[in-house]
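User:
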Amino acid sequence: MHATIRRYEGVDQNRTDELTKKVGESLAPKLSALPGFAGYYLIEAGNGVMSSIGLFETLEQADVSTQVAATWVRDEKLESAFPNAPRITSGKVIAHQKNGAYVVA
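Assistant: Predicted structure:
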């Protein structure tokens, strides 16, 4: 499994509810339709910071999700809500906790 974390800074805090709704209505369905999709999480960290975590079977699939997210921001005309490019971290998930068991990949 591979994860991609996107950290957005300078997010318009007055639009958090709108952004959360739009993600659920249009971005999350696009991501979940991608091959290898295993999960998506949106995090509101406060102070204009939002992060997302996407889980996919392969790194290539995770990379495609980043392209989909960038296109979505442009298509939805959300550049003013997300004024800065996200900081992106991607890589192989090497261990995780699931159902009480610690699993090393």
